[in-house]
């Protein structure tokens, strides 16, 4: 059974291009594995909030020494880390806002990048602890081509995923919705169909 974590970041909700394309990809995964399950994580929900000094302090306090207040501060982070650890596949809907990712998606990154939990520092550099996962980045843009010099979103997400140990990453390009939405959607759907499906868990 394949467990899919779908991370949505667009402020447009159900009308989001990145969400619609990500769902088409998830439908392909489910068609190939009828037992596949999906967990939804919308980064626009209030629980996905910017980290604070208290958050970082709780991160760096050994679990056995954390106060009840610290446990409460990182409860949302713990839940989101658990979602990633339990998933076989991540599908991240990543619209490009002003050449980068939405602030809420950055907040999600800050909640799942945890020293000693999803990565460790070693004498040989950082080592990711999230292994054996495949990730798809559905990169939707208004006009900036994915992987162009002005695309700071896709390289950043690939770096973050690699940092925590996810190196099997496929980008599903969905560029140009602000120029010609119909053509952009058609190309994006073709890219979904061309994506390599994960091996069923």
From TrEMBL:
The gene is azoR. FMN binds at residues 10, 16-18, 96-99. Also exhibits azoreductase activity. Catalyzes the reductive cleavage of the azo bond in aromatic azo compounds to the corresponding amines. This is FMN dependent NADH:quinone oxidoreductase. InterPro entries: Flavodoxin_fold, Flavoprotein-like_sf, FMN-dep_NADH:Q_OxRdtase_AzoR1, NADH:quinone_OxRdtase_FMN_depd. The keyword Cell inner membrane does not apply. HAMAP family: Azoreductase_type1. Keywords: Flavoprotein, FMN, NAD, Oxidoreductase. It comes from Thalassospira indica. Belongs to the azoreductase type 1 family. It is an enzyme of class 1 (oxidoreductase). Binds 1 FMN per subunit. PANTHER family: FMN-DEPENDENT NADH-AZOREDUCTASE 1 (PTHR43741), FMN-DEPENDENT NADH:QUINONE OXIDOREDUCTASE (PTHR43741:SF2).
């Amino acid at each position: 059974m394949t467990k899919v974590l779908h991370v949505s970041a667009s402020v447009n909700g159900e009308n989001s291009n990145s969400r619609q394309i990500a769902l088409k990809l998830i439908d392909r995964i489910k068609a190939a594995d009828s037992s596949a399950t999906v967990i939804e994580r919308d980064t626009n929900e209030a629980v996905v909030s910017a980290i604070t000094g208290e958050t970082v302090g709780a991160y760096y306090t050994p679990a056995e020494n954390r106060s009840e207040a610290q446990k409460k501060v990182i409860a949302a982070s713990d839940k989101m880390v658990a979602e990633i650890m339990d998933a076989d596949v991540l599908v991240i809907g990543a619209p490009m806002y002003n050449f980068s990712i939405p602030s809420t998606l950055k907040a999600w990154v800050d909640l799942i990048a945890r020293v000693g939990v999803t990565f460790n520092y070693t004498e040989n550099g950082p080592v990711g602890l999230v292994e054996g996962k495949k990730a798809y980045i559905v990169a939707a843009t208004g006009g900036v081509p994915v992987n162009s010099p002005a695309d700071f979103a896709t390289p950043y997400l690939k770096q973050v995923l690699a940092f925590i140990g996810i190196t099997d990453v496929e980008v599903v390009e969905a560029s140009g919705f602000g120029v010609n939405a119909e053509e952009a959607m058609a190309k994006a759907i073709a890219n979904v169909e061309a994506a390599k499906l994960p091996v069923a868990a």
